[in-house]
UniProtKB/TrEMBL annotation:
UniProt entry keywords in alphabetical sequence: DNA-directed RNA polymerase, Transcription
Protein name listed in UniProt: DNA-directed RNA polymerase subunit omega
GO CC aspect terms: DNA-directed RNA polymerase complex
Molecular function as annotated in GO: DNA binding; DNA-directed RNA polymerase activity
E.C. number: 2.7.7.6
EC top class, as a word: transferase
InterPro entries membership: Pol_omega/Rpo6/RPB6, RPB6/omega-like_sf
GO biological process entries: DNA-templated transcription
Pfam families linked: RNA_pol_Rpb6
Reactions performed catalytically: RNA(n) + a ribonucleoside 5'-triphosphate = RNA(n+1) + diphosphate
SUPFAM superfamilies: RPB6/omega subunit-like (SSF63562)
Length: 106
């Protein structure tokens, strides 16, 4: 998940609403699809980060003995610089990379 494409903006972008409802014919339905995909991406990123940081976990629970690990800090900074899940999901939606279906329309 961390090898995201560079075409995803890293900050807020003004979007044409007509582009968002092109696939669904309903802006609200499009927003729900994007929101659900963003939740999936956020969960995957959180799990990936947790797995990488768990390598640095110590069995010592003493708060006075906190060690700064340079590699751990770099991993955290890398994930902080990634685009937000909402931006990734919106870009995927606009590029038709998100599969969705509405059972009420079928």
């Amino acid at each position: 998940m961390s090898n995201l494409k560079s075409n995803v903006p890293n900050s807020t972008v003004t979007r044409d609403v007509r582009m968002l409802d092109k696939e669904t014919d309903n802006i609200y339905e499009s927003v729900v699809v994007i929101a659900k995909r963003a939740n999936q991406i956020a969960s995957a990123l959180k799990e990936e980060l947790g797995n990488k940081l768990s390598e640095f976990a110590t069995s010592n629970d003493n708060l006075e003995e906190v060690f700064e690990n340079r590699e751990q800090i770099e991993i955290s900074k890398h994930y902080e610089r990634l685009p937000k899940p909402t931006l990734i999901a919106t870009q995927e939606f606009l590029e038709n990379k998100v599969y969705f279906r509405n059972p009420t329309k079928e």
